[in-house]
Amino acid sequence: MYLYPLNMNNYSIASRRRRTKTERLSAIRRIIARGVVDSQETLITLLHKEGFAATQATLSRDLKRLGIGKAPLPNGGYTYIPAPEETSLATDQVFIQDFMRGFLSLEFSGTFGLIRTLPGHANSVAAALDHLKVSEVLGTIAGDDTILVVPRNGVSPKRLMKAMKVRIPSFREGEQ
């Protein structure tokens, strides 16, 4: 016979069953990706809210196993950051969204490309394109609503368009 604690408010169904290590590691990744987690104590509290029991020693081993590190915050202190390979996957999606959010069209003059964006979006669209590391792009120069795209030597407009479609799946040639 199983006796439930008297205070059922703090006792979730999820915490009644044993959670696996894989589930705990997944929860750690998810929590850290969501926002600023400044200490192991904070992370333990957030894990407990999701039904996971973890000691500081277990958490230290988990963080090391996941390759999670700490990075300084702009106004002091530190936060946990995902492993580099996880960061690149997550940020690629964010950069693609940033690009598509402001992108209007792409035209060419010779080999130079000119991207038109919504007003005030050129910097974020150019930064997204730069961070996505389209190998055919040497660099970008952004104004308020236009971006000059400088291709590498020997890269044709057609090749640049194809490369952008590979890195930005939602990019459509018809939008040029």
Written account of the structure:
This protein has 176 residues and is an alpha+beta fold. The protein has 2 domains: 8-82, Arc Repressor Mutant, subunit A; 86-175, Gyrase A, domain 2. It contains 7 helices and 6 strands; from the N terminus they run H-H-H-H-E-E-H-E-E-H-E-E-H. The strands form 2 sheets. The chain has a 4-stranded antiparallel sheet with strand order 3-4-6-5. It has a two-stranded antiparallel sheet with strand order 1-2. Helix 5 (84-102) runs antiparallel to helix 6 (122-131). It is elongated, with a radius of gyration of 23 Å.
How many angstroms does the end-to-end distance come to? 69 Å
* CATH architecture designation of the largest domain: 2-Layer Sandwich
* Low-confidence spans: 1-16
Q: Strand order of the main beta sheet, please?
A: 3-4-6-5
Gyration radius over CA: 23 Å
Average pLDDT works out at 82
- CATH-defined topology of the largest domain: Gyrase A, domain 2
Total helices: the number is 7
The tally of domains stands at: 2
Order of helices and strands: HHHHEEHEEHEEH
Q: Main β-sheet: number of strands, strand sense, barrel status?
A: 4 strands, antiparallel
* Assigned CATH class of the largest domain: Alpha Beta
Structural class: alpha+beta
Residue share in helix:
40-55%
Shape: elongated
Q: Proportion of β residues?
A: 15-25%
- Would you report the number of β strands? 6
